[in-house]
């Protein structure tokens, strides 16, 4: 794998001017408020599993428009005080999987909510169970162009709202210390975490790992990998839709979300990442508004990034912030 993007020095300084819609904040404030009004109390069902050090609960909570969203909640067995929590979002095409697949956070003493991604969960992993009941107009295969004709109909409007409502849901539980909630995720999950960090109040940390959904205008011309190629294929057919497409995407760009961050941030980037090019990650990192931020660069890695090494960095970051 060759280096294909900017040099490390250029990446560290890369701060593109990305214009944002004048009604960006109004759009998202109205979206979140409407979904909160349509909400209902989270539903938790204990799961009889083979795990002995972790209690597993099957969760349903109200996402976008009150739609039911599935999640796993993993709690350290025997906890007697309200716990700090980590909400995790999943990479493109995956679902919440099985509870036994993600035990690190609960083993470290945190409550861990793993949100299913609506409509996904059938590309890799152990599956998901949350439908997306909303239709869209013309789209390519995948999720990137569903509803691309209008920000109000775009697929990620629903997903990003689900992410905020996942934070709301876990804060409502007596087992959780609502003042100590962090968000994380890799790839698509990292992009979703950036959105949750912008649109949720009072988080203690935002930890996007090799985040997707950042700096769309650069990504689609720089990489020939999926999922950004979904946008390329769409525009190769809808030849006159460029302006409308990127106007829609501007409401969902991780760089613009990063500008609204109000909690400390820990990023990771892989310098040989052809899926989420390094410059798109640095664009979000350099725009990240909170003064406490750090990025870990994996010089010789593709989109797998730091893997388990990055989880160790995240755990240490929360400990430095006193979130234990």
From TrEMBL:
Transmembrane segments: none annotated. InterPro entries: AB_hydrolase_fold, AXE1_dom, CE7. Pfam families: AXE1. Residues 1-320 form the Acetyl xylan esterase domain. This is Acetylxylan esterase.
């Amino acid at each position: 794998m060759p280096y294909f993007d900017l040099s490390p020095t250029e990446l560290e300084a890369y701060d593109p001017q990305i214009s944002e819609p004048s009604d960006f904040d109004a759009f998202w404030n109205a979206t979140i408020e409407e979904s909160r009004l349509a909400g209902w109390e989270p539903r938790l069902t204990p799961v009889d599993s083979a795990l002995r050090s972790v209690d597993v609960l099957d969760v349903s909570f109200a996402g976008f428009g009150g739609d039911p969203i599935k999640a796993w909640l993993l709690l350290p067995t025997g906890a007697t005080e309200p716990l700090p929590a980590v909400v995790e979002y999943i990479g493109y095409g995956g679902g919440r999987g099985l509870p036994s697949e993600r035990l690190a956070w609960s083993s470290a003493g945190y409550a861990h909510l793993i949100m299913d991604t609506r409509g996904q969960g059938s590309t890799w992993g152990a599956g998901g169970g949350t439908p997306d009941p909303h239709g869209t107009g013309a789209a390519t295969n995948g999720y990137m162009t569903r509803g691309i004709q209008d920000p109000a109909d775009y697929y990620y409007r629903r997903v990003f709202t689900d992410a905020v409502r996942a934070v709301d849901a876990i804060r409502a539980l007596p087992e959780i210390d609502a003042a100590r909630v962090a968000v994380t995720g890799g790839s698509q999950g990292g992009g979703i975490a950036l959105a949750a960090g912008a649109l949720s109040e009072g988080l203690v940390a935002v930890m996007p790992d090799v985040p997707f959904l950042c700096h769309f205008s650069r990504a689609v011309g720089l990489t020939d990998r999926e999922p950004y190629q979904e946008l390329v294929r769409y525009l190769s057919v809808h030849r006159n839709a460029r302006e409308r497409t990127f106007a829609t995407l501007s409401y969902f760009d991780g760089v613009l979300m990063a500008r609204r961050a109000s909690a400390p941030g820990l990023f990771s980037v892989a310098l040989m990442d052809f899926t989420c090019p390094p410059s798109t990650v640095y664009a979000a990192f350099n725009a990240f508004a909170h003064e406490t931020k750090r990025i870990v660069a994996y010089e010789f890695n593709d989109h797998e990034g730091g893997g388990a090494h990055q989880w160790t960095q995240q755990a240490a970051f929360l400990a430095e912030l006193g979130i234990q």
